[in-house]
Amino acid sequence: MINKIPFVFNLFIWNSIINTKTMSPIPIIQKGAEVEMLKIAARCWCAIISATPDIPEKTALYTNAFFIVVYLFSTKLTYKDYLVLIFCAIFVYWILAMNIDEIKLRPVVKEDLLEMQKLFVETIRAVCKKDYDSSQIDVWTSSISNEEKWLKKMEQQYFIIAYIDDLIVGYASLENYDYFDFLYVHKDFQRKGIAQMLLHQIEKKAIENGGKIITSDVSITAKPFFEKNAYTIQKTNINTINGTEIINYHMTKHL
């Protein structure tokens, strides 16, 4: 919900303040080509916010602020108009800032295991259900029963945790600096730029260690995200686990 606030803000502010023919409470004396161009730019930004799953809220916040500053300097407003507009902008952005959680990264520790597994199961069940049926999800999530395997991966792979306060909201791992293994984001924190943040850190680590190509086996659900980040499908995997077929994609990217 939070990441849609900038979009709603755009629609209201730019249609109420810039478009004087509708419900604008602020009279604009000069309306030139620069204002029309600004209207187009602002509405394009509305479309970007609504269509881009992983755009961070802070990006939307600062870009909206930029539009407001440009608008203020490209139109002739009365002194009262400036005060009203600035007050509205400060008030709305203060509300937005109060709702933007600071996401931090840290290394994994053994004590994270249970919370990571809980996130793993809940995210797959909530986010991947449109692409996999219940039997496939049951097989996929059953891997948490192998605690030893999980702990071994946590010890041997480069593992990073994304967290807000004390809550784990995502994690990712890199094996041998060339294989992107885990990437999961909490079901309640989707579309907040967490996956993008984790992916960037994983790729950065691979490059720092001489990686030229990174590979991953990606679910149907995650495929569009990886494609957006320049990963390409090399082959379709049909994995049979306990008699159940699960499809994913072997993807690569040149770093």
| Alpha plus pi helix count | 9
CATH class wording of the largest domain: Alpha Beta
Shape: elongated
What is the CATH third-level topology name of the largest domain?
Aminopeptidase
Topology order in helix (H) and strand (E) letters: HHHHEHHHEEEHEHEE
Question: How would you describe the overall organization of this protein?
Answer:
With 255 residues, this protein is an alpha+beta fold. The protein has two domains: 2-98, no CATH class; 104-254, Gcn5-related N-acetyltransferase (GNAT) (Aminopeptidase, 3-Layer(aba) Sandwich). Helix content is 49%, strand content 22%. The chain has nine helices and seven strands; from the N terminus they run H-H-H-H-E-H-H-H-E-E-E-H-E-H-E-E. The chain has helices at 5-18, 33-51, 57-74, 79-98, 113-127, 134-141, 147-156, 194-208, 223-228; strands spanning 104-107, 158-164, 167-175, 179-185, 213-219, 232-241, 244-254. Strands 1-2-3-4-5-7-6 form a seven-stranded mixed β-sheet, with helices on both faces. Helix 1 packs antiparallel against helix 2 (33-51). The longest helix is centred in the middle third of the chain and has 20 residues, at 79-98. The chain is elongated and about 70 Å long.
